[in-house]
Amino acid sequence: MTVRYSKSIAETQKNFYAATDNCHMEKTRAERLISNAEGFDAIVILNDGDPFLDSTFWYLTEQTGGSFEGSMAIVGKDGKLDVIVSTLEEESAMSGKGDIHVYRTRDDRDSHLREVLKGSVSVGFNVRNASYSMVEYVRKTVEGIKIGDASSAISSAVSVKDRKETDLIRKACEISSQVAKEIPDMLSEGVSEKEIASRMDVRMRELGGTGNAFDTISAFGANSSKPHHAPTGYRLRRGDTALFDFGSKYERYCSDMTRTVFLSRPPEILERAYGVVLEAQAAGIEKYADGASARDADLAAREVIDRSEFKGKFIHSFGHGIGMEVHQDISVSPRSDQILRAGNVVSAEPGIYIPGVGGIRIEDTCLITKNGCERLTDFDRRITFV
């Protein structure tokens, strides 16, 4: 099968940046966000402390550090960005984007909020990440505003990455790819799932990662048939599948990849499954391109699996969006009605799962381009016996 990512990486990057730079060169991230939010006078991004910390705040401010609890990033109708922070984050905030407003007391914050939203009526919030109490605080503090849900507009804006974002994701992918290449040397009979997951996490940090994109999945033997298995003390045996789903963060941006290897020869059914999954991934990636329907990639991969002996064993979608969150709002599923755009970053992760026997998953992080896609993660996808 011929796939569209056959061009050189250098040529692919050049073409992608030429297209996306032309699209973004006149607009800031705040301007791009508000242009997606028709009908709103302002968008308010709230950080109310864990678990209500919104990555959109860091997307807009381009901060790499600081917790910014109790902070707000507000985008006006003209694309102006105002950032309200406490004295705790004042120094960090000054190194980022936006006009900074520092508060020392609750009254200070109230005053800044009223001033920034002066004249605004329809105000949008990222309701998927905002606490009810903070939205109510804004509504009660600024008289006359009407609250709305801007989460779809926000998702649309952040899903198309600019050059800086793709460079950071590319670095995160380089880190996880290097760890993937080292996995075979980590494996030996008797090592546990937890031990390998821990080594992988440490190695990602040693290579420059600034955190995990998510909890590393390390699954041996029959445990590999559970797509979201949490590592246990189970120890690797000869003939076992060893499945690893992991990702690094680099300056808040994520990578996501899965590789499946074997400690010596596995049952023949798993070798056959591996070949089918590899073919399915190639078929799905063939459909990745600017303007393509997201569902087409899933359907192409699913067709490969369902015409094999493993029909019905692909039990999740083909992919999802990736950015500051490892799961962003692009659904590459058979029911998706989304259209892919150059600058989207998505996973490609078909799998086959046989309870009591084992599972196979192969996953890469992919950048959608005008003419296809570029795989950002890299490790030999051919079947590997350790």
Task: Provide an overview of this structure.
- Helix content is 35%, strand content 22%.
- The protein is an alpha+beta fold.
- It folds into 2 domains: 27-158, Creatinase/prolidase N-terminal domain (Creatine Amidinohydrolase, Chain A, domain 1, 3-Layer(aba) Sandwich), CATH 3.40.350.10; 163-375, Creatine Amidinohydrolase (Alpha-Beta Complex), CATH 3.90.230.
- The strands form 6 sheets. Strands 4-3-2-1-5-6 form a 6-stranded mixed beta sheet, with helices on both faces. A 3-stranded antiparallel beta sheet has the order 7-10-11. A 3-stranded antiparallel beta sheet has the order 8-9-12.
- Helix 4 (90-94) links the parallel strand 3 (81-86) and strand 4 (99-103).
- The longest helix has 24 residues, at 163-186.
- It is elongated and about 70 Å long.
- Mean pLDDT is 93; it is low at 1-19.
Q: State the CATH class of the largest domain.
A: Alpha Beta
Bin the helical content.
25-40%
From the N-terminal CA to the C-terminal CA, the straight-line distance is: 27 Å
Kindly give the count of domains.
Answer: 2
Number of strands: 19
Tally of contiguous helical segments = 11
Main sheet: strand order: 4-3-2-1-5-6
Order of helices and strands: HHEHEEHEHEHEHHHEEEEEEHHEEEEEEE
Estimate the strand proportion.
15-25%
CATH topology of the largest domain: Creatine Amidinohydrolase
Molecular shape: elongated
Describe the sheet with the most strands. Answer: 6 strands, mixed
What is the correct CATH architecture of the largest domain?
Answer: Alpha-Beta Complex
Helix/strand class? alpha+beta
**Unreliable segments of 5+ consecutive residues:** 1-19
CATH superfamily of the largest domain: Creatinase/methionine aminopeptidase superfamily
Computed over alpha carbons, the radius of gyration is 23 Å
Mean pLDDT: 93
